[in-house]
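[step 3/7] fold_predict: job queued, chain A
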Amino acid sequence: MAYKSPFTTSTDWGVCRVDGTSITATNGIISINAVPPASLNYGFFYDTTAQTNPVADTVNLATFNTIGSSNQITVVGGTQITPANAGTYNIVFTVSLEKTQAGAPEITSIWLRYNGVDISNSRQDIETPNQTSLLFVTGSYTQLMAAGSNIELVWSSPDVEVQFSFLPATVGPIRPATPSAKVTLTRIS
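[step 4/7] structure written:
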């Protein structure tokens, strides 16, 4: 049978296996019930608020208040990105790191946690210059995850004038908003 050729003719009736769940046949009509397989797990989450560093050199958890799109992945408690299915996942994050007041250059660290435990070798250090600045920091990591486990984006800075900044939409020219933090979690196996 070639693409676009009839499944049956008056002389050739064709054969089709019907499993009763994803493919059904009723009164000679074959239907395919397209349900994405569990392997198509993905989630895109972001935050539309400024995330401050109220106390120097303490651990901050990035928050996510908006779901961009998601299948079988949720955000629990605003910080824990949680897949419903086990597998190997690719994690990509971007933050809008801003130094809001001039001062000495400082190092801000960003890393990942799996089920509340820091992931080895996931830290990125970013130096903010001595003047006000806005830096976009992106990272990627691959992690084997159990069903119901979670990933968190963590950060710390010795400078209380450093934050993850939300940038609203603008005009002249028209430009979309920039989340303070965003993360995509995609199952790759």
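[step 5/7] annotate
The chain has one domain: 42-187.
The two ends are 32 Å apart (CA to CA).
exit 0
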